[in-house]
Amino acid sequence: MDQRLTDADLSRVLQPVATANGLSNRHYIDPAWFEADRERVFFDNWAGIGFAKDVPENGDAKPLTFLGQPLVIIRGRDGNVRVFQNICRHRGMILVREPGRIRGAIRCAYHSWCYDLDGALKATPHVGGPGHNAHEAIRRDELGLIEVRSHVWRDVVFVNISGDAPPFEEAHSKAIDRWKEFEMPLHHSGADSGFALDVATNWKLAVENYCESYHLPWVHPGLNSYSRLEDHYHIEEPGAFSGQGTMVYRQMAGENGQVFGDAPKLGPKWDTAAEYIALYPNVLFGVHRDHSFAILLEPISVDRTIEHVEIYYHDEASVGPGYQALRNRNTTQWKEVFEEDVFVVEGMQQGRHAVDFDGGRFSPVMDSPTHMFHHWVATQLAR
């Protein structure tokens, strides 16, 4: 990367919204900048990698690869969720290959080194020669699994791979406080409340689109028919999150008037309000009186992103069999809404190959949540 070009490029993004340009094309189509995102944006901050619902019982494990890193999410015997590098400390062999219940120890298939669910190294068969399962050079207390800093919020498992970020509760205190009324158990019903979209776009474009309501009249005419552009407001917390809210949320009802149960003890604001924020860098949240969702953006390459969407209910009864039809309708509705955005983010990705595009401009009135995200990314890359 040419540092002179980098400085000039990012300085334009760091201007006030009325005069700023967006991030330039190279940030969306150049693999070198995708690597910069990997190190400075994702690894140095709290990034979402998975969902705690996928390890519901003690001993459950789910392996995954996040930006090339082999990781495994494990719910320990104490019920706590932890994340480890999914490798044996002996020769770097992958340990857990399939999601499921670990019965007993985590055993390496190569030389049978064994680890407890908390990562402690428990057995090293024949490490000192046949029949000798210990050696003074192999200090088990120093060779446990490498734990990655992790935190679970709203069922999303976040990690800070570099280990350098402030504690999650500090880094995202404003978001936690904003939605403190929704600090309650979330209920997920399984396959009928989740789906994934494989989108040919850079991950940042999915965030940028989600942040603003400006596009609603043209991209989401169904939503806009009752939640109009003028019914929305901006949500902005510099350095942490941005998005938008609506003042006219319409609760879904079945043919017999059935509705999902509300979260308990909500203030009157939430009778008709709903909010949608992008928690930087890669998790998109939505909250409503009766249900919530989380969208985890998994960056696969510079021009491919998988959007993992999971829907949660606030009343446990809502995940029961009596609500199956209504849940199906709710999932279908959200899937249709998010699919309406695909052509937009894929179109912007294609447009980023136009050699004369300067990163674009922002409406000072309508685009400030999106500019706030650009500004945050630029600050991470300029460090």
What does this structure look like?
The protein is an alpha+beta fold and 383 residues long. It has eleven helices and 17 strands. It has helices at 3-13, 26-29, 31-43, 168-171, 173-178, 203-211, 216-219, 221-224, 324-340, 342-351, 368-381; strands spanning 47-51, 60-66, 69-75, 81-85, 100-101, 106-107, 114-115, 121-123, 147-153, 156-160, 194-199, 232-237, 241-246, 274-279, 283-287, 291-301, 304-313. It is globular and about 75 Å long.
Give a summary of the structure in a few sentences.
With 383 residues, the protein is of the alpha+beta class. It is built from 11 helices and 17 strands.
Give short descriptive properties of this protein.
383 residues, alpha+beta
Q: Beta fraction of the residues?
A: 15-25%
Helix content: 25-40%
- How many strands, which pairing sense, and closed or not: the largest β-sheet? 7 strands, antiparallel
- If strands are numbered along the chain, what order do they take across the biggest sheet? 1-10-9-4-3-2-5
Sum up the overall morphology in one term. globular
Overall radius of gyration: 23 Å
The pLDDT mean sits at 95
Please identify the structural class as seen in this structure: alpha+beta
Distance between the termini: 14 Å
H/E element sequence = HHHEEEEEEEEEEHHEHHHEEEEEEHHH
How many β strands by DSSP? Answer: 17
Helix tally?
A: 11
Helix and strand topology:
Blueprint: H1 3-13, H2 26-29, H3 31-43, E1 47-51, E2 60-66, E3 69-75, E4 81-85, E5 100-101, E6 106-107, E7 114-115, E8 121-123, E9 147-153, E10 156-160, H4 168-171, H5 173-178, E11 194-199, H6 203-211, H7 216-219, H8 221-224, E12 232-237, E13 241-246, E14 274-279, E15 283-287, E16 291-301, E17 304-313, H9 324-340, H10 342-351, H11 368-381
Antiparallel strand pairs: 1-10, 2-3, 2-5, 3-4, 4-9, 6-7, 7-8, 9-10, 11-17, 12-13, 13-14, 14-15, 15-16, 16-17
